[in-house]
Amino acid sequence: MNFEKNIQKKLIQKLLDIVRFDGPAVQFWEKYIENFTRFCQADRAILTGCVDGEWKIANSYSTKGDAWRLKRFPAHLVEQGLQKKIAAGNVDGITIIAVAVDVGPQEQSPVLLLDIGQRTLSISENTIYLISSIPSLFQAMRLYNKARTDALFFAKLLQIVRAVSDDEKFGLASLRLCNEIASLFYCDQVSLGWEKKGKIKLKSISNMETFEYRANSVWELESAMEESIDQDSEILWPQKDNGKLQTRAHDTYGGIRRVGTIVTLPIRRGREVLGAITCEREKSAFSENEVWRLRLLLEQVAVWLDTLTHTDRWFGRKIYDWATDRLKSFFKIEKTGLKILFTAGIIAFAMLFIPVWTYEVDGTFILKADKTAHITSPIDGFIETVSVSPGDAVEKGGALIDLDVKALLLEKASMLATLSKHQREAEKAVAKNCLADMKIARLMEKETESELEIIAFNLKNASIQSPFAGIVVEGDLTSKLGAPVRQGDLLLKIASLDDLSFEILIEEKDIYDFSIDAGVRIKFVGKPDSVYGAKVTKVVPQAVFSGGANVFKVYAGINYAPEKWWRPGMSGVAKIESGKRSLWWIITHEAFDYLKINFWL
């Protein structure tokens, strides 16, 4: 009996020792369930918790080493244990004790199920109730230890901030900060870099008053700091679980230094990044709590370090900064009227003389078809049928005009009779053995065959077809049915709608203001609400006289499908881009050109 009491005392002591356990929570629960099970002399135990309204097994323990497999989960017993704190019931012939475990007021209590077999529980409910409250004591102890640790850290942080603030030189303040961080976080080396003209310059290394700026390791360290600043994030090296941050520079620097872990944090003042600090440690990785503390410390000293970068400078630099500050003070609220006037003058000057306005050369255009066909009469004859009129769309090989072929057919019949005659004469000459007559007949036969081939060719061409898909733009023959035509007479004109370009007329004075490939804006007279784009493809070097002035023809092409309603001959206004000009030049250049030409200025 005394032996069992001694064992229970030891188990109670172990349970009390668990309150001061400083390891992970998972290990705490394993130790707690094991000792609770042994103290109650149970065979097995299961810790259950309610997740989204459903009870699930969180942890288990067995003194026999086997798993406890329940045929059915005793949900009713668990609910009773949660309500009464301690409840007992029989499940599948086994006595089970359900104990609500106190984990504090913030969370719902889990329930511990104890398998005591056929035995009766020899421990009082008060004792079990006290043991079930150990997790809440553990939580309270953890919070106390964290609060105590944080209080000590904040006290140390205030000491560091005060010590750094006492230094009036940037070099001494940055070196002191590196040394203090190395001591507080047990770092092997701490380095501080400062931003200058978009680059990071290494300023201090812990426990080192001087270092070689041109060393390869220094360059790689600066690259690692810039890598953190460019991504605007703290970088822990080596990364866990294939992190999303780029760590190429840290990989290189870590390989040179051969350290276990590195953390780099940007130094910020508000949203402005001032520099970065890199901490190195061989033995253990930096925890998230340590990174948070580092970030907090840097936020406290960033303002003073930034102030020292402006005050700890040579005399000439201070004069420059003073002049810059005076200029900034000009834009404060004092002397508002003068400042508004001055600002308006600067804006007006910028608008007039800074070349930010797009200048365009004006011209008129005519839509031209790059591919046209003049349809002429292939033979002498008469127009029999006309299938198209101006404006009609035609396909490649489509019928256009049919000429009357009656005369050709009669001529073909006559030639066939003549051919038959010459063939018979040749056969008679062969029968009479007259060689000369036979040769003459054969020659006449070949001559007749040649004439038949000409007639067949004319018959084939008597039906005129379109050489390509397009539209009829000229030639109204619907009123000329039966009219005679001679070979070579122009009948129709067809233009392709797939190859269109703009023929733009530009005045001589503007021809040098743009170049090939300049952008063009097009507006049609019939549709002024729409603007279309084009590019200059060719400038004809020969001027022509039009509208009382010399003009040059400029051709502009398009790289997209033309609109279905576009037709050759349409006109409108074109504006050719001529680059950026100042508003003053745009307003006055024509007047100055007039004066230069007429007054020889």
Q: Kindly, what is the distance between the CA atoms of the first and last residues, rounded to a whole number of angstroms?
A: 128 Å
Say what oligomer this is: single chain
Radius of gyration: 51 Å
Low-pLDDT segments: none
Average pLDDT score: 85
Largest sheet: 6 strands, antiparallel, barrel
The third-level CATH topology of the largest domain is Beta-Lactamase
Plain-language structure description:
- With 601 residues, this protein is α+β, with helices and mostly antiparallel strands.
- It has 4 domains: 2-142, Beta-Lactamase (2-Layer Sandwich), CATH 3.30.450; 167-315, GAF domain (Beta-Lactamase); 372-494, Beta Barrel (OB fold (Dihydrolipoamide Acetyltransferase, E2P)); 497-598, Beta Barrel (Elongation Factor Tu (Ef-tu), domain 3).
- It is 42% helix and 28% strand.
- The protein is built from 14 helices and 25 strands.
- It has helices at residues 2-19, 25-39, 75-84, 125-132, 134-165, 170-184, 216-230, 248-257, 288-311, 315-330, 336-353, 406-431, 435-461, 583-598; strands at residues 44-51, 54-62, 86-91, 94-100, 111-117, 189-196, 199-205, 235-237, 261-269, 272-281, 357-369, 372-376, 381-386, 393-394, 399-403, 463-465, 470-474, 484-485, 490-495, 500-507, 519-524, 527-539, 544-546, 549-557, 571-581.
- The strands form 5 sheets. A 6-stranded antiparallel beta barrel has the order 11-20-24-22-21-25.
- The termini are far apart.
- The mean pLDDT is 85.
